[in-house]
Model the fold of this input.
Amino acid sequence: MRACKQCSFISPDDVCPRCGSATSKEWQGYLVVIDHEKSDIAKKMSITSNGKYALRVR
Ligand SMILES: [Zn+2]
Done:
């Protein structure tokens, strides 16, 4: 799996399906957002949709 360099969204694609930015294989840890409206972490990371997000992308 790969993570987006821009929004950290995790997907198997070379280009992020969420924002269209390049993705990277170099990432660590992930966060599963089930209800982004109620998640403080999602707010801090500017996550506006549910899904899996990498905590750190290089
Ligand atoms: Zn993205």
Q: What stands out?
A: The chain is about 10% helix and 35% strand. The chain has one domain: 2-57.
